[in-house]
Amino acid sequence: RNMSSAGPEGRKKMRECEGLIDSLVYYIQGAIADHEPNDKATENCVCILHNLSYQLEIELPESYAQSIYMQRRNISNNDKTPGCFGTRSRKVKEKQQDTPLPEEKSNPKGVESLWHSTLIRIYLSLIAKSTRNYTQEASLGALQNLTAGTGPMPFAVARTVVQKASGLPGIRAMLHVGHPAVRKTAVSLLRNLSRNPSLQNDIAREVLPDLVSILPECVPGSDVACETTASICYTLFNLTQSSSHNARLLLSAHGLPKVIAISMNDSNMFSKASKAASVLLYSLWSHTDLHSAYKK
């Protein structure tokens, strides 16, 4: 577990170590099957996988990109951005929803397991069944890492979490736990998921009221809570930017007074949360059909 947090070279060596990732996954599967999701060894295994999934899209060798994705042609060199899952451009990013993804391998080995739906479902199972905060945070954090990029793979993972594995109820429950780091990681994961337009209505329907409910009445005093508040505002921005219906959901959940109060704090120390709230307010005002409701 300590070695897996030693930086890019350490992660690379551990990902390449034959049988290591498979063994970690095997152990966690056994712990879940034996109804023992709270033991220390399971926590260690999940924390290692969490660390090994960090910056995965950037750090994997190009050979994986060619075997995982179809070749992308006619992309200008000027538009290229680095990433292991194939050359991407702004145009490709815009069309990522329409890009057909290859079928998953039925029996993934090694590093391939890190983004496979089997492990995604394991993380969601641990989120639902474990009461150990570090295990919950590591499971959420692994999913956050896997959905952090802009390529087709993060989008596919997000779609698996939201639609194929029905993971939103478990993530929603983590918004209400007492541990600030677990709550912060759950919100960060939802922020990543909410960037995908095809998932936004599902996310808004399931968790938007919960996000509003955990928004503080004013800018919070601690750094972690302040970061969490900013992430909530940016998640709500993603969910409401293109949807008047979702903006009305925020209004119905009594979110507007909270967002206004957070935006009005001009202290430099809390500028991150205040700025995020201001960006959200600006976006909400773009829904002209809601102006009269806002004024009321």
UniProtKB/TrEMBL annotation:
Places the protein is found: Cell junction
Keywords, sorted A to Z: Cell adhesion, Cell junction, Repeat
Gene3D superfamilies: Leucine-rich Repeat Variant
Tree of life domain: Eukaryota
Biological processes, Gene Ontology terms: cell-cell adhesion; desmosome organization; heart development; intermediate filament bundle assembly; protein localization to plasma membrane
Gene Ontology CC: adherens junction; cytoplasm; intercalated disc; nucleus; plasma membrane
Predominant place of localization: other
Sequence ranges of Basic and acidic residues compositional bias: 94-107
InterPro entries hit by this protein: ARM-like (IPR011989), ARM-type_fold (IPR016024), Armadillo (IPR000225), Plakophilin/d_Catenin (IPR028435)
Region (Disordered) location: 79-109
Record family assignment: Belongs to the beta-catenin family.
Protein name: PKP2 protein
Biological source species: Leiothrix lutea
Gene: Pkp2
